[in-house]
Each structure stands twice: as C-alpha cells, then as structure tokens.
User: Which sequence fits this backbone?
C-alpha cells in the first residue's frame, strides 16, 4: 500500500508540474516551417518614385549579399497588375536565397540571421518586414495581410483611419515581441490637380475636351499602335519628355492650340496645384480599411496577441462606426479554436 501511494503521489507531482510548464508555453497555430529562403519587404513613403525605389533596392540587395549566409538576393520593384496582389507601389519584394545550413557560421540561427540582416538593410524612412515566400503568398491571399500579424481598422473616413492606424502602431511598438511595426500611410500619395477654368477656355474658344486631350498626351500617355514581336505584343506609347512635365511650372508651360492658330499655355486655361491624396484605397466588408503590419519575434503569437489586445483597447478609443480586427496568421488560429470547441467535446462524448 505504501508503494502504491508513493507512485500515485509522484505521478500527481509530475502532472502538476506538467500543468505549470504548459501554462507558460503560450499558443501558436502552427510552428513556422523553414522554407530555406527569406522574403524581405521594405516599405517606403507612398510618394516615392520608381527610380528612387530601384536605387534603394540595389543598395539593400548589396547589403544583404554581404552577409556570409546569403547566396544571392533578387528584388521586385513595383506591383503586379492583378487583383491577387494587394501590395502597394511603394513596397518592394526581395527573395533572399540562403546557403545550405552547414555553410553558416557557428552558432548562427535563423532568428539571429534575420536580426543581422534587418540591421544591415536599415534605411531612414523605410520600414522592413521579414517573412518567407510561400507562407507570405498564403497569408496575402487568405487575409490580405503581408506580415505575420496585422490589425485592420474599419471605418468611413480615410484621414481618420490613418490617424487611428498611427496611434495603434505607436502602442504596439511598446508591446514586448513586436518587431517591424508599420502603420499604412493612406493619404500620403502625391497628385497634381489640374482644374480647367471653363470661362478662360471659352475666351480663347478652346473646348474642354481639347484641353483634356493635351493633358493626356503631355502628362499621361497616348497609345499610338502596337508592335508585334513573335508571340508578344507591346503598346507604343507617346508622351512629353520628363523635363517638360517635371513639376507644376513645367506642366503650366504646355501649349494648347486655339482655333485661330494661337498657342496658349496651360496655366492660362487651368489652375495647377500639387495635392496629397490616397495612394491606394482598400475596402473590406463594405467599409474602408487601414492596416498596421508587424512581426512577432521572441515569443508566441497567441500570448503576444493577448497583451496587444489589452494595450490597444486601453490606449485607442474608436469613434462610432469604427472597429478593428486582428488578422494575419493568427486568424487561422482563431478559426481552428472555434471549430475545436465543438469537435473536441463531441469526440470525447463519442469515446
């Protein structure tokens, strides 16, 4: 009897000890799979030009390639013309191909490598997001979030959404485990507004359609024809050289032909002024949406979401008609947990 009681007591101690350890493990939907490559996504200001984005990509690729564990890095600048790619124009996607693990430095882990790469590619004004290629495509197609965890803020006004996103991001930066927190800059795009003065156009006898056609040819582009090269077709586009459309003053000097043969500058027929506006408008569930992107490092996603939810609820007050939701890889965990709450009791009952 004494031996049986001692074994039961020892088993009870082990069980209680296991419960204590399990309570500190945290929660995660699936352990991250090592795909062998990394995906680096730098996000710049929405008003960045294609030339500047390409220059930064070359600079960061050179810094990535200088790390011994990296074999090569290839960047994609711009956005694919497809509805399945929710990436903005100011985000670059860089595939970082790593060498085999046996060629890594002693003691180097993937987490330490990501930290070293993140420090190497740091550029002022550019936020960095690190993930892996395959899981990133799955996350983007299923949730629209381009990072491990994201916060979606829904509402009706873009300026208010951008303000709430910036406030949420500031709070999330103080939560342990948050890394590469980026609040989407919705209204930071640069536009050139050309408002035609109909009274001035009428004095010169110029129609509004003629002015719009000149603007399209000078600032935009006109498709003249298509060239056929084998099985490929390329449009032939024409527009003014960059020095004639570089800014508001240059655009104002574009000449518009009047019926009598006179050449009237565009500044005499329209008001030309730069203005900031949305670079890309996203909507979901019938409302406009702003996102806050971030990665979690050094702790489990489930525990981080719990702390982040409490911090955001205490620090961000949403106006009437606005609400936020947590998305990304954590969304799969929420769906699985809701289903297991039904399936597990049924399975135990059947057993």
Assistant:
């Amino acid at each position: 009897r004494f031996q049986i009681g001692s074994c039961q007591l020892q088993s009870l101690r082990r069980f209680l000890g296991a419960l204590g350890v399990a309570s500190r493990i945290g929660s995660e939907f699936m352990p991250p799979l090592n795909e062998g490559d990394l995906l680096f996504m730098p996000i710049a200001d929405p008003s960045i030009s294609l030339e500047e984005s390409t220059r930064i990509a070359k600079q960061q690729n050179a810094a990535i390639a200088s790390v011994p564990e990296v074999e090569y890095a290839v960047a994609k600048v711009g956005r694919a013309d497809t509805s399945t790619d929710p990436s903005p124009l100011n985000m670059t996607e860089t595939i970082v191909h790593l060498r085999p693990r046996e060629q890594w430095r002693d003691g180097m882990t993937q987490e330490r490598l990501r930290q070293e790469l993140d420090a190497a590619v740091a550029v002022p004004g550019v936020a960095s997001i690190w993930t892996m290629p395959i899981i990133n495509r799955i996350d983007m197609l299923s949730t629209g979030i381009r990072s491990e965890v994201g916060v979606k803020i829904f509402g009706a006004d873009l300026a208010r959404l951008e303000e709430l996103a910036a406030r949420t991001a500031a709070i999330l930066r103080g939560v342990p485990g948050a890394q590469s927190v980026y609040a989407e800059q919705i209204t930071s795009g640069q536009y050139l507004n050309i408002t035609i003065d109909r009274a001035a156009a009428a004095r010169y006898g110029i129609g509004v359609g003629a002015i719009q056609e000149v603007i399209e040819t000078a600032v935009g582009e006109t498709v003249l024809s298509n060239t056929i090269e084998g099985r490929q077709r390329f449009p032939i586009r024409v527009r003014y050289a960059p020095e004639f459309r570089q800014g508001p003053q240059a655009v104002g000097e574009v000449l518009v032909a009047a019926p009598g043969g006179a050449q009237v500058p565009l500044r005499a027929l329209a008001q030309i002024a730069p203005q900031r506006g949305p670079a890309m408008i996203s909507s979901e569930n019938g409302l406009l949406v702003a996102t806050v992107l971030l990665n979690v490092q050094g702790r489990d996603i489930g525990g981080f979401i719990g702390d982040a939810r409490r911090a955001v609820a205490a620090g961000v007050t949403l106006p009437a008609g606005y609400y936020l939701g947590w998305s990304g890889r954590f969304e799969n965990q929420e769906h699985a947990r809701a289903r297991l709450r039904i399936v597990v009791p049924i399975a135990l009952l059947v057993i």
